[in-house]
Amino acid sequence: MISMHWSVRARLAVVSAASVRVGLRHGCDLKHHLRVDLRILAVIVGSLLAVWLLFVAILWVFRPRGAGLGQLVRIVPDVLRLVRNLLADRRTPVGVRLALIGLLAWLINPIDLIPEFIPILGPLDDVVVAILVLRYVRRRLGTDELRRRWPGTEEGYALLSGVLGRSRPEP
Fold it and tell me: Which residues of the chain fall short of a pLDDT of 50?
């Protein structure tokens, strides 16, 4: 058993040494390869960081305005009941149901664009995604239908409407 282990190691060492010799024979420098690999890695990491910053900027633009965190927390149970009712109702359009399923998957997923432990910004991505999905739901169902299905109070719906923003006029 020990001899097999050492023979595998010895073969790997010979193959590694041979590949370095072949590279050097063809004018390739090991430092050059390492430098190129580090450049590629830096470009990949920089690109991922730029995309992440773009997402954070989009979330900041679409953040809720005019509503305090305490007010938003109070309507969360009503919003969850609304989502459950819309998912359970067979008359709800398929696109709306898929968007709501995606929202639930986003909220349940432990991986966030902005980690939850960052004060103020942590829960922002979840709130913004919920707002975007609920705007889509309102656009597809119509303001009157969304109001009819709202399980909460008038004040709660008024707050939700304020957070979602003005609806587009229906054609």
Answer: 1-4, 15, 18, 20, 22, 24
pLDDT attached to residue 22: 47
The overall pTM is greater than 0.70: no
Residue among 125, 3, 113, 106 nearest 63 (CA): 125
Encoding tokens for residue 102? Answer: 């995606």
Closest Cα partner for 143 from 134, 151, 152?
134
Complete DSSP assignment for 58-109:
HHHHT---S--HHHHHHHHHHHHHHHHHHHH-TTS-HHHHHHHHHHHHHHH-
3-state helix, strand, coil in the chain (%, to 5): 75, 0, 25
How much is the pLDDT for 160? 87
Residues 6 or more apart in contact with residue 11 via CB below 8 angstroms: none
